[in-house]
Amino acid sequence: MNCRHCQAPLDRVLIDLGHQPASNAYLTPERLETTEVYAPLKTYVCEACWLVQLPSFHRSDELFTPDYAYFSSVSSGWVDHARRYVAAMVNRFGLTAEDWVVEIASNDGYLLQFVQQAGIRCTGIEPTASTAAASRALGIETLERFFGVELARELVAERGHASLTAANNVLAHVPDINDFVEGFAVLLAPDGVSTFEFPHLVNLIDQCQFDTIYHEHYSYLSLTAVQRIFAAKGLRVFDVEQVPTHGGSLRIFVCHDGSARHVQQPAVANLLASEAAAGITGWDYYATLANRALKVKLDLVEFLVAQKKAGKVVAAYGAAAKGNTLLNYAGVHADLVDFVCDAAPSKQGQFLPGSHIPILPPAALYERKPDLVLILPWNLRDEITRQHGGIAEWGGRFVVAIPNLQVL
After folding, report:
1. Predicted model pTM
2. What is the SS3 string spanning the chain?
3. Residue 77's pLDDT is what?
4. Percent of the chain surpassing pLDDT 70
5. Distance CA 277, CA 282 (A)
6. Which residue ranges form the domains of the chain, and what is each CATH number?
7. Above 90 in pLDDT, residue 130?
């Protein structure tokens, strides 16, 4: 087994979360009677380029299917993040109606709607039919394709180069990261800018965010590794920002290596130095994650069993991919968590993969009045507790399991 970027042999296992189904493979009632596909969820650390990665047990078209159930606009906080991003990019780079903005993995138009409102030409690239249709309903041109060199060349031949490309939470999702990155080198105008957002590997390790590991995430990214990957395709990371989304992410700004317009910002060298000081280029930094994750698992199971024995009703909130990793790693099923609520209509009426916990609309919280509500997408903890603080009326309390078990 070799590194997907540099082809060095992979020998170091970061963590083995057992065999699990794909985290976004929600089940209809009919599919509960069929066999689920499980694959190893084991991540490796490349000691040559320090890219943390999961082998490609699934093809992209097996994971990102036409009925893909994740719609970005469900989270009001994420939509507001996108609105602020667009305003900042228009201001920083002086974008006008003469420019062309392309978003890769544009989902349901959550971001490009603001580009469109600014009067700037835009195109979304989104391979899942369900979310692409929602984007088109907003009047946004959306191509149902996977992005890479081939599509980039087609776009340039037909329309020219892009002034700005955005790629949020997709760099980790591509099995061929080299082809994906090269696509931006093809598509981007000579002085254009590409931005990428992705969860920062440092937070995964330091805050025990092991539940962000799932089959749809092929890579787990540090600036140290990402800078090398982009440099190999003639692209330069000229700025970086740390943003709070998804438990702590990086937003990197990339240009062609030869572009004189974009001056190298001190933030890049500063963050690289910070990662080095943390130990990101040495195995010892990674070696303790597995034991810390095991403690999270054991604490959660012990807590849920104790609640069940005490006659308490436990529900969950947020049918998130990260929640499925946690539940399946811990071996939690509907005998310990009665149901999970989610605001996305695309998930309601289905069942979580592996655990088979039923997914209900948020109204079920107030109808069934559970004693405890386990927040699975802990990155949305503040949003969820604010929206559903009414559970306190019957004495209900929220619980989070990561980085450690807390009853709020």
Report:
1. 0.88
2. CECCCCCCECCEEEEEEEEEECCCCCECCCHHHCCCCEEEEEEEECCCCCCEECCCCCCHHHHCCCCCCCCHHHCHHHHHHHHHHHHHHHHHHCCCCCCEEEEECCCCCCCHHHHHHCCCEEEEECCCHHHHHHHHHCCCCEECCCCCHHHHHHHHHHHCCEEEEEEECCHHHCCCHHHHHHHHHHHEEEEEEEEEEEEEHHHHHHCCCHHHCCCCCCEEECHHHHHHHHHCCCEEEEEEEEECHHHCEEEEEEEECCCCCCCCCHHHHHHHHHHHHHCCCCHHHCCCHHHHHHHHHHHHHHHHHHHHHCCCCEEEECCCHHHHHHHHHHCCCCCCCCCEECCCCCCCCCECCCCCCEEECCHHHHHHCCCEEEECCHHHHHHHHHHCHHHHHHCCEEEECCCCCEEC
3. 81
4. 97
5. 10
6. 72-285 (3.40.50.150), 295-407 (3.40.50.720)
7. no
pLDDT at 67 over 60: no
Which pLDDT band, with edges at 50, 70 and 90, does 403 fall under? very high
Region 13-19 average pLDDT = 96
User: Amino acid identity of 321?
Assistant: A
Mean pLDDT, range 155-173, rounded to an integer: 95
